[in-house]
Specification:
Elements lengths: L1 H12 L5 E2 L2 H4 L16 E3 L4 H13 L4 E4 L16 E4 L6 E5 L4 E5 L4 H9 L17 E2 L12 H7 L6 H4 L6 E7 L5 E5 L12 H5 L8 E8 L1 E2 L4 E8 L2 H13 L6 E6 H11 L9 E8 L2 H16 L5 E5 L2 H12 L1 H5 L5 E4 L2 E2 L5 H14 L3 E6 L5 E2 L1 E5 L4 H20 L18 H4 L2 H14 L30
Parallel strand pairs: 2-4, 3-4
Antiparallel strand pairs: 1-2, 5-6, 6-10, 7-11, 8-9, 8-10, 12-14, 12-15, 13-14, 13-18, 16-20, 17-19, 18-20
Helix pairs in contact: 1-3, 8-10, 8-13, 13-14
Bound molecules: flavin-adenine dinucleotide.
Amino acid sequence: MAREALILALRKLLPEGRVVSDPDELYVYQSDGFTIARATPAAVVFPVSVGEVQAIVKLLAEHGAQIVPRGTGTGLAGGCVAFENGVVVSTAKMNRVLAIDLENRVAHVQAGCRNLSLSDAVSQLPLPGNSNFKGQTSNPYHFAPDPSSQRASTIGGNASTNAGGIHTLKDFVTSTHILGFEMVLPDGEVLKVGAENGGYESGPFDLPGLICGHEGTFGIITSLWVRLVPKATSFRTIVVTYSSTADACNSVSDIIAAGFLPAAMEMLDGSMIQIVEDAFHFGFSRAAQALVLIEIDGIDALLDGQMADVMGICKLYNPLSTEISSDPARRAALWKARKSAFGAIGRVSHSYCTQDACVPRSKLAEVLARIDEIGKAHGLTITNVFHAGDGNVHPIFLYDDHVESQVKNTLEAAEEVLKYCIDVGGTLTGEHGVGVEKLHLMPYLFDEATMAQFNRVKYAFDPEERINAGKLLPSEKLKVDLLKPGRQVPQ
Ligand SMILES: Cc1cc2nc3c(=O)[nH]c(=O)nc-3n(C[C@H](O)[C@H](O)[C@H](O)COP(=O)(O)OP(=O)(O)OC[C@H]3O[C@@H](n4cnc5c(N)ncnc54)[C@H](O)[C@@H]3O)c2cc1C
């Protein structure tokens, strides 16, 4: 009854088609990419303006319904899943690029603007006059954060999870590229923080920095001012295969220790090479137990020398094969291979769960060995494709979602992996965030005083826990049991 009244009120507020409450249509909003965390929301609403977001937030407060912000649901930690009759507020239809100011290298976008749509829009603009970019055919600026989901994920979602990506090694995570936010707070007030014109905030605190990574627990981001930077134009791509993951990991660690900063250093383990080869036939050696894909960029005249130095380090670890290339077509094919890895898993496993932790690069070899042992002990196949240069591991657990014991095994193995990563000096998330997936391990990583301080920050934005309670920080108000039989259904 309470749900019916709420839906009726939402329908009065928003036009036809922007309130979804039919159980069949709600099915796709039951989870994000972490499909173990599943619950049917009471409804999903699609505002298109700040005013609508304010009105929705106030209405949900009156009805005592949890507000659950969502971009396009590509998250991998269950952050946008609405438990216990929560209402999903999706900013996916607030997807416009509002302004591009190349003179000040800043763009203003709505929160639901897809990551790649912004760079695509910039690339259509004429080359800047008085240009430092002679000889280029398209506009040189772009929005640098490049999660592999960048075609689908939103910039609001990227900022909320502080997303990383393939080029995070050199370009850093999303927070480096966010200048300001407009956000509707859980009481309906509109907060504007940060710089709108490419300058920096003059206040005493870095509030945009604080909001990055809030995982939808502070408010609903409605628009963002973001930094635009020139794209690199000269590249060299290096592919090295090895007969052991340890050799591959040690060469990655040594390259950084020697003072190089490649734009990207990605790694696939042996099983992932097989999966990608079976699906796409890129021609990688099936004997290889690891493949490292390195990109260096910068001033063209210097790149061949740097490439030789980096290759010299790789050769210390007995590679099976080496390949260097400055050909844009080969570069595109190699990055396609890397970006296709997640999609290819669908051919070999009914379900998969991608974990995400950061470890010191010098520990990568032992961490991968331990991950393999943990997988075997739990009877699970774990395959790896990850941002090796950042020490950001992504063990991918293959399992069958229909078999409860496999779900349980996956969660137990994932917990063991994450604890091990923390024990060797790593941290709980490299880029995907905590959501509900890693919530229980927050007190394992952070001491009581730190957890208390995190809570004070949350309550400063949301004293009544109206928004995304039980995500990122443990909450007395809403507790999620990932293994609840039948999962969560609306009352
Ligand atoms: C194939 C694949 C590859 C991926 N690769 C990467 C990668 O390389 N790097 C990486 O970091 N991540 C990656 N991800 C994870 C995911 O794409 C990112 O976390 C992304 O930033 C989520 O954006 P979204 O719009 O889908 O957000 P959602 O999944 O909808 O939401 C994510 C979180 O942000 C909050 N949120 C979303 N929009 C708002 C808003 N407007 N206001 C307030 N809170 C909001 C939600 O409440 C939730 O907590 C990948 C995912 C997939 C499926």
